[in-house]
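Batch manifest, entry 17 of 40.
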Amino acid sequence: MFHRLGHFVVKRAWWVIIAWVIASIGLAAFAPKMSASTDESEFLPKHYESIRASVLQEEKFPAEFSPAAILLFERTDGGALTDTDKADMAKVVKGLTDEHIPLVEQVIPPSPQSTSKDGHYAMSMVSIDKTKMQTDEYSDAAKKLRDDGKKLAEGTALKYQVGGQAAMALDQKESSSATDAITMVATVVLIVVIVGVIFRGILVGWLPVLLSLFPMIAASGLIAFVTKLFDLKSSPIASAIQIVVILGVGTDYFLFLMFRYRERLRAGDDRKSAVANGVGRVGEAIASAAGAVTVAFAVLLLSELGMFTALGPALAISVIVTALASLTLTPALLAVIPAKATFWPGRKWMEEPKGARFHKLGNAVGRRPGLIAVVSGGLLVILSLAGLGYQGTFDMAKSMMPKDKESMVVMDSLSKGFSAGAADPTHVFLTTGSGGGKLDTGALEGFGAKLGQVPGVAGVAPGQKISEDGSTADFTVTLKDAAASNAAIDAVTDLRSAAHSAAPSGTEAVVGGTSSVYKDINLAMTHDYKLVFPVAGLLILLILGLQLRSVVAPWYLMASVGLGFAATLGATTVAFLKIGTEPGLMFMLPIFIYLFVVAIGTDYNILIIARLREEAREGRNPREAAREAVRHAGPTVAAAGFILAASFATFMLAGNILFAELGFALAIGIVLAAFVMAMFFTPAITALLGKKAWWPGHGAMPDHGPEAIGEREPEPAGRL
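Output type: structure tokens
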């Protein structure tokens, strides 16, 4: 099939190129506009308690003041606020109110209750139309509050800053744009330089980047259509990950094809024949690799978190489009560009290198597969044990933005001047339900007192808000710790138990607020670990079985990749929790590690195991097959793994904790997948198992016919 595809693309190369240009422009021009959500509660299903509490609040307390922004006042000299400062604060608040900023509904002046006990900080609460949360106008309102408030505070002794949800949305928007730009530039530079050095050419270094533009544009358009069609949520981290996935995976597939293309040129094929034969030989590996990655991403649809149900299809579409481009657009372009121009100014691209690096590595694996398996497997096990110290954290705001962003500075100041949980209290709703009648107000005081006795609760606001129909009471509970901290989430767990058990007969208690949302995200993640991981593993196992025609090999390949996942988590835990000072790794990190390491790690295993099977079918014994597989496929795995690891490492340049953790974890995971699992562990285990690895197929039987797995990799020795 892939031979026919290769010949078809070569014969109609210009038509293929034109089709890609038209499709990309059309999808970009007509794609609907997307906006990313920074409200974690939007990513949870409606049956979770925090979401039920939010719905109840909307229904029973529609006019309840819900601050979207916090105006923080303090003196520039750090002293206590004076009467003059308080008068200046009132002028600033009045000035902002008189401006009638779009979407701003109310600006509440600072009061004794919103002033810190030491008198150094004062808060003003701002209500912004929450129906516009997912629009640019929402963050624009925060920007207007920030800019105009600073102007109004000029000439006073006040330091004025804006925090809260709307300000975080604004800072996140600006931070995401910077992250995307940094990621794009750094990844492009890495790919151009590394691919250019590998093939000793200038144009060939730029080709994977130029070729990635079309799938990037086309995939973005398709993602926008799918997101709108199925009403999916868009995560602010999706765009940066999509960039690296398309550039990184696209470069991998480009290398798979380019090594085969150069090999066929060296064997004497003309340019078009070399391209067609290259597609015929490497097409199955690219399709299988893309299939494994796509499946790993697509199963995120089973997640209970909207963040992942949106991210999964987006990345799956990106991989599918990238694979299609690698099998059609890339060979079409190679078919129309003269080979000398592709590799210019290099002059030795037609010469077989004489280096012995991978020859020595292959000999080591072939001679002592048992020792190699123990050493490489032992390294993975040791790193895996370090993962036992894993601790998750849910503070998305602090992790996704640099600490010097204004909304983050305000958050830190609030935790210093007030109770850490004061800026984002928890709400406990006691209700008789629909048609349940009015509450017995005599029981409310006792219920509130029991809430105040829960460990981790700083206090319960005196008095309760009662809904107009008298069916629901709202208890405002202040926690001792910041809403996104693990301590606050633990406190909410106890608070829920206490509220549920203390609810009078005929009533129901539900707990809402940020800490409650994070508690439910934790529960949803536990669900995903039990469902998404196994389903993804089984589907990838099926793909491996179909591609290798074996029952045995896929199992130890998946076992090695599973070890790679655990080792990656362990290495990241050591780096950030043991050596670093972070309180925990971001809660979604394990699922990202699993998906990327399992899927892309399988890519390299597919490439090496295909070569192992080829060598076995050529009649070599298991140890000789392992030696030749490392010798010939090693350069491709090393080049692809190094580039992809370096691409993921560019995340660490983004300037925030989340991307630092993602970048490190995915980079180290790819390094382990390419340079430990694929290069040593997989061929060593296959050599030890011998013909049993291919049972019940005939992978180890000699086959010299046209359907043999393919020609040799381009590098018979160690140099790239």
